[in-house]
Amino acid sequence: MAEDTGGRPPSASAARVRTAAHAHTGAWLAQVLRERISRGELPPGTKLAEQALAEQLDVSRNTLREAFGTLSAESIVERVPNRGVFVAKPEAGDVREIYRIRRMIEPAALLWGDLTEPALAELEEIVGRAVAALEAGDVLGMADANQQLHGAIVSLAGSPTLSTVMDQTLARMRLVFNRMADAPDFHTAYAERNRHLIGLLRAGRREEAAAGLRSYLDAAESELLDHLHHWGR
């Protein structure tokens, strides 16, 4: 039975919703829900109860339906006839599409993005948090830092459009990670590879970093697909 949001108290992020300048627009609300999904607050299979969410987020049901339409087009939620709207459960085809997008934009951002000192310092700080989470055995912390790092890599391109695409992709990626709950060691090797990747950037070795990231993405995709296949998902 899918989880229903109807019985949940408003979160801190929901409280902030009420003061947002762009509240009550479908695009803004889609981003709020996308961020919640990306943070793992709404795991795969969660039923997005329309009335409860409209009240919790202080928006009209029409605005909520508009946001659902946007997220459905992005494969982040699924509309099930006569049942409602649910956070999507990604399958093998979704994993391949996600990594196709990532291979197109992330290595390019490393090659041609604006590697300022503040940008490098931000990447190093995120990697530091990932490694600290690794040492503490904090799987969720590693996953969060990993998501943030790859979003920050794409932001090097200085393109709001690409960053929006990456936000959408990372929201779908979080759904994949949530399906890896029975493989907690998945993130471990990637925390170390992230540290090596940012070290190459710090040394000015962009081409090596981009090639390493492509290899990294290939390996992650293969591991995820193997896992989904093994468990018959």
Gist?
By secondary structure, the chain is mainly alpha-helical.
Q: Using only CA atoms, what is the Rg?
A: 18 Å
Q: Quaternary status of these chains? A: single chain
Name of the CATH homologous superfamily of the largest domain? GntR ligand-binding domain-like
According to DSSP, the number of beta strands is 2
Helix content: 55-70%
Predict the CATH topology of the largest domain: Four Helix Bundle (Hemerythrin (Met), subunit A)
Mean pLDDT: 84
Head-to-tail CA distance between termini:
17 Å
Q: Please work out how many helical segments DSSP would assign.
A: 10
Write the layout of secondary structure elements.
Blueprint: H1 12-17, H2 26-38, H3 50-57, H4 61-73, E1 77-80, E2 84-87, H5 92-112, H6 117-136, H7 139-155, H8 160-178, H9 188-202, H10 206-230
Antiparallel strand pairs: 1-2
Helix pairs in contact: 2-4, 2-8, 5-7, 5-8, 5-10, 6-7, 6-9, 7-8, 7-9, 9-10
